[in-house]
Amino acid sequence: MTSKKYVYSYSEGGRQSVDLLGGKGAGLAEMSNIGLNVPPGITITTEACRDYLKNSKFPDGMMDQTLSGLKSIERTTGKKFGDRKNPLLVSVRSGAPVSMPGMMDTILNVGLNGETVEGIASLTGNRRFALDSYRRLLQMFGSVVLGIPKDRFEEKLEEIKSSNGFRSDLDLGVEHLSRLIEAYHRVYSDSGFSFPEDPHDQLTMAIEAVFRSWNSDRAKAYREINRIPDHMGTAVNIVSMIFGNMGNDSATGVAFTRDANTGEKRLFAEYLPNAQGEDVVAGIRTPKHIESLRTEIPDAYEDLVKSAEILENHYKDMMDIEFTIEKGKFYLLQVRKGKRSARASIRIAVDLAKEGKISRKEAVMMVTPETLRATLYPIVKLTGNEKIVAEGLAASPGAASGRLCFSSQRAIELSKKEKAIILIRPETTADDVRGMSVSVGFLTQKGGMTSHAAVVARAMGKPAVVGAEEIRVDVNAGTVSMRGEVLHEGDTVTVDGTTGRVYRGSIPTEEASMQGEGEVLLSWADSFRKLGIRANANTPAEAILARKNGAEGIGLARTERMFLGDERIRIMRSMIMSESTEERKRYLNQLLPMQVSDFTEFFSTMEGFPVIIRLLDPPLHEFLPDKEETLRKLFNLQKNPGDGRELKETERLLSVIRSLEEFNPMLGFRGCRLGILYPEIYEMQVRAIISAAKAVKRTGKSILPEIMIPLVGHENELKLLRERLEKVIHDEMGSDPVEYKFGTMIEIPRACVTADSIARHSDFFSFGTNDLTQMTFGYSRDDAEGKFLAKYVELGILKMDPFETVDETGVGELMRMAVRKGKKSNPGIEIGICGEQGGDPETITFCHSIGLDYVSSSPYRIPVAKLAAARAAISSRKRGQTAG
Amino acid sequence: MTSKKYVYSYSEGGRQSVDLLGGKGAGLAEMSNIGLNVPPGITITTEACRDYLKNSKFPDGMMDQTLSGLKSIERTTGKKFGDRKNPLLVSVRSGAPVSMPGMMDTILNVGLNGETVEGIASLTGNRRFALDSYRRLLQMFGSVVLGIPKDRFEEKLEEIKSSNGFRSDLDLGVEHLSRLIEAYHRVYSDSGFSFPEDPHDQLTMAIEAVFRSWNSDRAKAYREINRIPDHMGTAVNIVSMIFGNMGNDSATGVAFTRDANTGEKRLFAEYLPNAQGEDVVAGIRTPKHIESLRTEIPDAYEDLVKSAEILENHYKDMMDIEFTIEKGKFYLLQVRKGKRSARASIRIAVDLAKEGKISRKEAVMMVTPETLRATLYPIVKLTGNEKIVAEGLAASPGAASGRLCFSSQRAIELSKKEKAIILIRPETTADDVRGMSVSVGFLTQKGGMTSHAAVVARAMGKPAVVGAEEIRVDVNAGTVSMRGEVLHEGDTVTVDGTTGRVYRGSIPTEEASMQGEGEVLLSWADSFRKLGIRANANTPAEAILARKNGAEGIGLARTERMFLGDERIRIMRSMIMSESTEERKRYLNQLLPMQVSDFTEFFSTMEGFPVIIRLLDPPLHEFLPDKEETLRKLFNLQKNPGDGRELKETERLLSVIRSLEEFNPMLGFRGCRLGILYPEIYEMQVRAIISAAKAVKRTGKSILPEIMIPLVGHENELKLLRERLEKVIHDEMGSDPVEYKFGTMIEIPRACVTADSIARHSDFFSFGTNDLTQMTFGYSRDDAEGKFLAKYVELGILKMDPFETVDETGVGELMRMAVRKGKKSNPGIEIGICGEQGGDPETITFCHSIGLDYVSSSPYRIPVAKLAAARAAISSRKRGQTAG
Description:
The structure is a homodimer. By secondary structure, the first copy, chain A, is of the alpha/beta class. The first copy, chain A, is built from 35 helices and 33 strands. In chain A, strands 14-24-23-16-17-18-19-15 form an 8-stranded mixed beta sheet. An 8-stranded parallel barrel of chain A has the order 26-27-28-29-30-31-32-33, surrounded by 6 helices. In chain A, β18 (441-444), α18 (452-460) and β19 form a beta-alpha-beta unit. In chain A, α11 packs across α12, α13 packs antiparallel against α14 and α13 (342-354) crosses α19 (516-528). The longest helix of chain A is centred in the C-terminal third of the chain and has 25 residues, at 581-605. The mean pLDDT of chain A is 91.
């Protein structure tokens, strides 16, 4: 019976064998196969590791195969493992399928012992080098393989150094090293061990140690954090030792085939002359610029340049290379894809495609949406000395520094002389919008990812940290206490909405802009994607930005945001406090021309593209002042009533607040429920839409308004509203018809379940995944994010925050159902998504897969959405081809 | 070409032809066919009506068939339509498939004119009778057929009466009637009409008028209110006139074959001698007891008794009969199922089965659950003079009178001397439970159908009217203003929780009890039903009641209600305000023995039956005092701080209230989310359950505890809790194992969608349809019921309140999915429902149809639930047979 194959020579492996041979092993094999110079070696498979970990012993045949592989290394190098004259030394290195840098073990110089060390000494003519290599083996083997605490070796080293007054290991001479070797042997015996003099024992034990290191605590923790599966196991590479520390014609270094920071096409490398790889990692000596190598060891330099080019062309990507030069001879020790900055990532992908090395599709697949996104917001440039004074929810990305201001009123005043204001509030309300518009960033003590501050910040594209529960804002005193410090108006902080951190003082930020290569990449993405990309825009200004960023329409214009200006909210409040339908209509008539003007601007801006306008959605109490403040005001007025007029007004206000108060406003009297019970509100809005559309049409521009009803859960809601509002529409059109669509949000579970009936009254569906997620999970986002959601992710109950990425199993299943049922009863129906998740790449991939027509995201996320849509289309086409 | 058949003779119809011939026509045909004496007649079908309404003309052949039918009436009666000597007179009566009493038109005496009236006069020898019949035809025909306003005829009648000083129509002599007939003819000509002298014209026009009356405004409104479909149409019965007003040997009357009030087996009838049917309806004369008929017209009496018996035996039900006696000859004019009181309904069904006239299954199908329910609550006995002082939500059925009391404290004091207390509060909280327990009924100004007051009232089985927004309760002043009146403590009111009305003063109520026949019926129901019936019980007292009412287990014991006593809520609040896990555990340890004692009582009471205990569900802030009151207290303490201790405590309390405050508590930090983040709470509860189970088991009683986790939306929640809690369970069991089940509520849409995964960790599912409905619809019940739900039902958007009866299309679809997926991955899973809807008959039918194992309802609803379950089983078996 022949045993399984557990050991691979280079010629038997290659880049495709990553799972079996690990990244390092596959890279060595690939390099060897394409004719590059790598030190001879073999790779034991991950399967052997898995087998070992399962049965606590090497699988049958593995060691035999290893020894026969070792023989072939001996043949190639002409050296012999354990030979006292010309001994072969090997490194035993871990190498997992997924990179886990520094997490697992490696033992160098295996094969050295009291005898072979002498062989090395005489062969190299460098006794110090030989002894130093030997003591390193003793130290590494002792701690890694036998588990002797490192300290015990370090102590001995320190003893000798201090007794001689040495400061560096390099000061140790032959004598000292000999004494150290003896001391190390004593450490072994004191710990109950003896160093295995037989190189084969060393090898066997080293392999076993590397296998075991897969399950070390730190490796397991790393995998958990990085979501790497536990079952893979590590390969073991046994490679003949190459020494970069054999004199001035030796060296070791790393190289990136392009600039990892900018993406520029130039070799980006550093090296240390007369050094070993671990010296580079240890950072004891400062590496030299690669240009020196050109003059120092010109042949090796040429080899490096040539190898880099070959590898990049071969892998069709920017590569990260480790190399060593032993006595003038150039060896490649490792190759892998090079890590790069977000900016570099885009430039490299575009350049590679332009150079013809990859296709445009491959370029698009090379840049993740997260990478693109990272290039779009200002980021803080940290030195590490910054003081974090608070942490909260990262509600709106980007960073900004400015002076603290505790009220919108003050912010507006200060904005006349002060440019950069950070508005800090316990929480923001409709009253704060003007103050927010003059500020550069926001910080709140309360509220979640959909709190007023968070939503407005994202809409304004300004950084915000919200729900920083640890701080205490005292608006009256104009102070905030943050981690023991009390800050006042005018104190400077930096708000990093990407991380949720707040820093004391001003920290420089790097401004973002879509660069040349980014635009090129996006134009390629546009040619591949199937999904339309629209933007959510609540004001004409946002519509302009959306258009600039390449939106193909507005997927959601929330009309309620239009009622927030000083004058408008006054009218809105009067409307809400109206005591009769007539009074209410009077105020609505005041709002009508304002809405007409909003919509006219919208339609003009979005010429040629559809604009979905959602009729009033939030509960009316959102337009009223805060209850607690009103209560406080009332209590004070009761003590000092003055002429009683203000008291009376406040009492009336409080009674309206109370009557509109709800136990669970999210599930209360809002959306189409309002529209149905107060017909005049939606009627005004629809009239404004048609009137604006007619006005724009008269200017010769084409426009497609889509009227969207929020919060529909029953077909009869939509049916009734459509009948009622189409009367108004036709009345307003008169003899001048305009094209329009009439449709609904799908944001209530029942709407998904009954989508077939609802589709019969609807020209389009737009998924509101925020509310849909809230109701499908039974989570109030504002409450959940502060109270238990983070803990749920931490405990592994949820893989991720379902408000950021659609929950495919639950919410997604309902969406699938809605699409299926909706299209069945109304095949021509247009279906999109306008929740915030519409800008999330994973969600976009999902939306592509269930056959949506478009996604709508924040104007700032449009580039990301386009890229994600293109990648989804390319991946599914690929899968399609494979399947076919 | 022969035309369709539109006209039926009696021998061609029968009881099965109700859709085609209407209720009246089918009854006449059936009676005739079984040999009872009915006046000769024919019936024009509902199809003819539909045809007419569609095309605005009679269908081809209909009038020919009518005339040939008329001929057969002529042959039978020996009279001739339009004959001046021996004229046939007919009534033209509407008769729809579903009874719509008084909604559609009927014309009597068709066939009379200036000539035939003389024939009648001489034939009957009663000229006054003939003229009176003629003027009635003129009046009826004019108003019904031609649409001449009734007033114009009434005016003329009044003129003649007043000019002669008459008070009654009966005072009119031959002379006056002749003058009246002339006056009526003038009314016709003044209105632009002339009375059609030709009897055939009369007939044609009368038929058309009856057809048209199907679509009269009042008929349409009636159908809308009573949910009768619009498409059915009415049949038209043309029946030869029988006159009960031809002397003392003539009479007219109505009879029920059994006592419609008590159900007793005795003829229950009244009659008017020498009168026409319309006189009975008009109520001008007081009818005589049927015993008089036995002596007055003994033959007719015998005929009536015999006919009643025949009809009841034939229809196998209590029947409502109309009869007329013309010159001693007995005629049956109509038969239909008799309306009866709820009590009578049960007695009749049981008696009929005992008499062998129907099967037990038929008896069960004869009593609706609503009927049974109506016999179970006390009902007010109204005289019509009662003063309604308020109306609110009918939150808990039944009625009670008592003296108003404005605080629980006072209620407890007063209860020592005063038995009947009605507790009135703006709204109730946990603090009011003791006060509620000494009161007989509740009235609140705020809150919906799931407000604290409503839920506690239903659990206590006491009447409650909640959310009576129109009243103003001033607790400090101890007054309530109700429709202009100000009431004080001690004033007496009656609360009717069945209708939501509150009356001034004490109104007698009829006490309910399950009567002998009810128990018999239920024992039959038990033998047919498939669904198990459990009860929701929150206290041991309720468990005892549940057992008494026949529950086969507890489907839901909410543990939170157990923390509401004075002492317990104090500990609970301390637990919530704990600043460390240790402190929290200390308080939980104080609660542990109390929980053990609760559960021990539960398990003892429910010996042999399963008891599902739901671990803590509501958000913690529900156990804390009201925020507004605390704020007010704080403001006052800030003015008068005293030694500052109370101020400090109140500040701390407020800060805890604030930290637990939520935007949407229903979707917030509650249920298993609490249990996961504060493991010690559920651990204490589970320990108490197992400890109690062991104690009861030691007494030799068998018991099956089922531990239920609330608000699960993701399988990982259940998986984690099960792993965590089963450790505690096994620890607590030690060497003394007890059998238990571990399962979950299904009350979140996501739980339905992912029921297959969840079922892998669950021994049972229990649908929480209240929360499931809230989340599936996106309705907060407390908000929706006060704000828009009633309007939605009124507008026809919803057919009914989805919180009372499960919404089969939406919520039901998710339930179906959950059952299907749950059983697929765990075929042995036990599935029930414990929402309040579990006691709703329609919901029970649905639960049977989707294959649930049991329903759990309020202890008070168990009889209703049993009946509903039996009816569902019988119906579906029947359908099964038909299908087979």
